[in-house]
Amino acid sequence: MTANEVFEESRKYIMNTYKRLPLFIVKGRGNRVYDGEGKEYLDFVSGLAVNNIGHCNPRVTVAFQKQAQRLVHTSNLFYTEPQVKLAKLLVENSFADKVFFCNSGAEANEAAIKLIRKYSSEKETGRYGIITALNSFHGRTMATLTATGQDKFHKGFEPLVPGFFYVPFNDIAAVEKAINDKTAAVMIEPIQGEGGVNIPDRDYLKRLREICDLNGILLALDEVQTGIGRTGKLFAYQHTGIEPDIMTLAKGLGGGLPIGAMLAKDHVASAFTPGTHASTFGGTPLVCSAAVEVMKILTEDEIILDTCRRMGSYLVDELNNLKLKYPDIIKDIRGKGLLIGMELNIAGEDVVRECLKKGVIINCTMERVLRFLPPLDVSQPDIDKVIETLTDVFNGIRI
Ligand SMILES: *Cc1c(COP(=O)(O)O)cnc(C)c1O
Known about the structure:
Layout lengths: L2 H11 L11 E5 L2 E4 L4 E4 L2 H4 L8 H13 L10 H12 L5 E5 L2 H18 L6 E5 L8 H6 L3 H4 L9 E4 L4 H7 L4 E6 L15 H12 L2 E5 L23 E4 L10 E5 L1 H4 L15 H15 L3 H23 L4 E7 L2 E6 L4 H9 L2 E2 L1 E3 L3 E4 L7 H16 L4
Parallel strand pairs: 3-13, 5-6, 5-7, 7-8, 8-9
Antiparallel strand pairs: 1-2, 2-3, 4-10, 9-10, 11-12, 12-15, 14-15
């Protein structure tokens, strides 16, 4: 099909829920993707923090190709080896004791919300409330949409799910004030991704942990975007010296295949018993074989995480240099590892489109925040290319 045919037939046959850029991608390798005419693009979005170890990573591809020839699906009425191997890798490399598998970030958070409620109900505390942050993003199912502290996602979908309460992000006093005898948990992103790459103060999570302990409530971290190496550690909470009770993962976990996971400490996880939660596709051998390889690549040595940290600081430095050159256009640079945002004084959409024309894929969130999510093994020359492209684009902007 030609690009135009694809654009037209998509409009005709696919529900209109996405604002897509005019690019028809047919192939991806490492941090490059290619359109139907073979034009190459440098991918600094990584399928939205999914392709953290590159498109078609050879080790991941081989792993699931082999698995595809043995067994793709069985349902969770039975046991499979890839699922238990993945659970073991996740447990051994995190605070958690147990894992529940599903298929997306929203489902992982949905599972976390259900576990919080079930745990509280088992303990007969009468608690059900979940405190989340304004500008958070937790997914698009009814419960995770409600957990998401942004009106624009709620509009038109009311009535929402009861039991969610919002506080400003990075505001400890607000959490203290919001907690009452009905509060069961605080659910928070260690760094807000969709909400504009918002990084809290150094001790924010530590203080949250203290407050949760003091009040006997659970701390759930949504690491769907920050997990799987994105911030320079396997999980973002590992920067902070604290451990949550519950953590959710998805995006980068499957190396491109759809998988979600909800992890918890034993005393919380034990509230889930047979029949209380389930997923037909959750943790199929195929996706788990890919995720096992992703986890091995990220944990067998520190090479990729170290590259992520070094290239992350390099990119932030270079973006700060741009800010000195274009103080009227650029307002703020913030990032951790390779989850990096550049807040503009102008709308970011045209900048994204201009970069795309020049063969560079970046993203914009919250209208004015350019988001950079390159693969974790990105090279310095590729960062230089993005900086050159942004320089060209900013030179063409008059404000
Ligand atoms: C993307 C994202 C989700 C939702 O994940 P889906 O796989 O799209 O359902 C949830 N939480 C955070 C922090 C995310 O970035």
